[in-house]
Every structure is written in structure tokens, then in C-alpha cells.
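Page 37, continued from 36.
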């Protein structure tokens, strides 16, 4: 038991991980079977239209993300606004003061 604890292997966690992995595999097989049946019913033209639609939708989304990242104005933030030093009697940190232990304020 001690050797297992040192290596980070616990039987209950392994059993839970096995159950989760098994359910994921079952779901993947179900989806693959459904898609296989649907694909076998479609004609070549329908498959090409679905591929074109897929490429247009996700290509548009990727283009939107790229344009948004490049041309959106950057927000000016105050990075250390909510952070104080470990000892509350000291004044709040200023930007660039990185040599102290940081603690998040309790709200």
C-alpha cells in the first residue's frame, strides 16, 4: 500500500478511470455507428455539400477569431488591482512588484 501511494496509483481511482474510459468508448462506438449508417445512405453530391458546409462554417469561425484578435482594440487593465501582500498592514502592491508572496483579497 505504501509503494502504491508513493507512485500515485490508487485502486479506487484506477477503477473509476476504467469505468469512465469504458463509457467514453461506448459513446464513441454509438456515434461512429450512427454516422456510418447516415454516410451509407448519402449520395456523393450530398457528402460533398456537407463537406463544403462544414468547411465554410468552421473556416468562417476561424477567420472571425483571427480578425478579432488582430484588429480589436486592447483593453487596458490593472493587473495587480485585487492582489495584496501576505501581511495586511503593508500597502498594496504596485505594478512590477514581484518579489513578495501574493494573496488574493477576501471579498
Amino acid at each position: 500500500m505504501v509503494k502504491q501511494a508513493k507512485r500515485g496509483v490508487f485502486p479506487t481511482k484506477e477503477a473509476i478511470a476504467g469505468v469512465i474510459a469504458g463509457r467514453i468508448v461506448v459513446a464513441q462506438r454509438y456515434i461512429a455507428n450512427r454516422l456510418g449508417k447516415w454516410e451509407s445512405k448519402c449520395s456523393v453530391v450530398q457528402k460533398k455539400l456537407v463537406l463544403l458546409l462544414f468547411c465554410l462554417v468552421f473556416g468562417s469561425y476561424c477567420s472571425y477569431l483571427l480578425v478579432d484578435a488582430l484588429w480589436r482594440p486592447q483593453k487596458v487593465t490593472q493587473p495587480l488591482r485585487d492582489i495584496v501582500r501576505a501581511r495586511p498592514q503593508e500597502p498594496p502592491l504596485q505594478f512590477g512588484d514581484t518579489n513578495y508572496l501574493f494573496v488574493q483579497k477576501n471579498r
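Helices lie at 2-7, 11-41, 44-71. Flag for discussion at group meeting. The beta strands are 83-85, 102-104.
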